[in-house]
Amino acid sequence: MIIATLARGGDDHLAPSAAGDSVRVLGGLEGATTFTVSPSGFFYVLRGAEGELIRLTEKGNPDRQAGGFGWGQTGFDGPTDVAVPTDLEVYISDYGNDRIVRLDRSLGISTVFETVGENTTFRFPLSVCVSGSGKLLVVDGEFGRIVEIDRADRISRIFGVRGSGPGSLDHPVRVRTDGDSLIAVHDRTGLVLFDIYGNYVRTLGRGVIGEFSAFTFRNGALFVLDSNSVRRHSPAGDLLGGITLPDSLAGGGDRFVDVDADSRNMYLLTASRIFVIELALLLGGK
């Protein structure tokens, strides 16, 4: 269903329109908390309270689901993030069960990385993403740092350790990487950037990128979402474009909770819907 188009005049904003529309909405969700879009165009949506992962087609049709609240092998307890480098591998940070779960193309569990044991390196994973070389980057919910796991499921690097000097993290909640160039971490102070080896690069504080509740890192740009706007920044902090989101867009008291993007579109998530927005139109064609 098409619901809106871009109207220009001063700041870019969305306004209702019947022609030239540039926004589609995919409905039918309930309790969605975070999501991602795979390279082939599938949506992977987490329902955190229900402990469930749902896969949708590009048109928003349910395809498969996995999990369901539980502490057993196939259940999830408060899953916090999902990463999908390809549709052959799906990673879930299963916070309540204290583990990272790898799913196969059918969304069956293929590998479980347990964090509880004598050699525990991190606890309560808050976020997960995958680098271009296939390494997992995990936000350590207990110790507030980033843990890198190699393809053999071994801890290969730890960085952003609290109190370690420049680049030390205070309260990280999400990690994203744009291939094998930079890593961005949502911390209490803003976005903290590291190179692919975990060396500190810079911090984009609230004075540079403003307040935000969610972000993603795609195609060399940072997309930051707050309650009523989305802004796109370069890794140096330069503003590349942005839109204002009117209260009527989400509708029904719903609010936007997450953002993702690919080379064609930007995607916004509410608890019940996914909004598909043409990237070139909404962000100045940059």
Q: If you average the pLDDT, what whole number results?
A: 87
Structural class label: mainly beta
Low-confidence stretches: 1-20
Spatial strand sequence of the major β-sheet:
2-1-3-26-25-24
SSE order, as H and E? Answer: EEEEEEEEEEEEEEEEEEEHEEEEHEEEH
**Oligomerization state of this entry?**
single chain
Helix content: under 10%
How far apart lie the N and C ends? Answer: 26 Å
| Count of strand segments | 26
Largest sheet report: 6 strands, antiparallel
| Proportion of beta-strand residues | over 45%
Number of helical stretches of at least 4 residues = 3
Give Rg in angstroms: 18 Å
Give the overall shape: globular
Question: In a few lines, what is going on in this structure?
Answer:
This protein is mainly beta and 286 residues long.
Secondary structure layout plus pairing:
Blueprint: E1 2-7, E2 13-15, E3 23-26, E4 34-37, E5 43-47, E6 52-56, E7 62-67, E8 79-86, E9 89-94, E10 99-103, E11 109-114, E12 127-130, E13 136-140, E14 145-149, E15 155-159, E16 174-177, E17 182-187, E18 190-195, E19 200-205, H1 206-209, E20 214-218, E21 221-225, E22 229-233, E23 239-244, H2 247-250, E24 258-261, E25 265-269, E26 274-278, H3 279-282
Antiparallel strand pairs: 1-2, 1-3, 3-26, 4-5, 5-6, 6-7, 8-9, 9-10, 10-11, 12-13, 13-14, 14-15, 16-17, 17-18, 18-19, 20-21, 21-22, 22-23, 24-25, 25-26
